[in-house]
Amino acid sequence: MTEVVLVEAVDAYTSVAVRGRLDATGVGEVEPKLTSHTVARRKPAVIDLTEVGIISSVGIGMLVAIARSLRSHGIGIAVVASPHVRSILELTHTGALIPVVATREEALRTLGLA
């Protein structure tokens, strides 16, 4: 089972964590909740994927859609990922659209919030 956990929702930003798999099944389980915590709030977003074991093209597509929606409103996003997921995101050039970093603190710095 894949789940989304709201870590922090403050005036300045939203931080969420995804746990499980971001394949077709996992994305189906979490996309509505992840979108409501990020896009609907219209705040800079930190998405923590350090507990995601597998990410497929469907998961990458979901992240890109969220990033594009936020960016269309001038809002930033950063992803925190394990080395394995980070390497997949780098191989697919997702990092050109979404900053992918190793820690939450680095994500907040990237978004100009720390």
Brief rundown of the structure:
The protein is of the alpha/beta class.
Keywords:
single chain, Transcription Regulator spoIIAA, about 110 residues, about 40% helix
Overview of this structure, please?
The chain has 4 helices and 5 strands. It is α/β, with parallel strands linked by helices and 114 residues long. The protein has one domain (3-110): 2-Layer Sandwich (Transcription Regulator spoIIAA). It has a 5-stranded mixed sheet with strand order 1-2-3-4-5, with helices on both faces. Strand 4 (77-80), helix 3 (83-91) and strand 5 (100-101) form a beta-alpha-beta unit. The N and C termini lie far apart (33 Å).
Strand content: 25-35%
* Biggest β-sheet strands, sense, barrel: 5 strands, mixed
What is the end-to-end distance? 33 Å
Number of helices: 4
Q: Total number of β-strand segments?
A: 5
Ordered list of secondary-structure elements with their pairings:
Elements: E1 3-9, E2 14-22, H1 24-38, E3 45-55, H2 57-71, E4 77-80, H3 83-91, E5 100-101, H4 104-110
Parallel strand pairs: 2-3, 3-4, 4-5
Antiparallel strand pairs: 1-2
Helix pairs in contact: 1-2
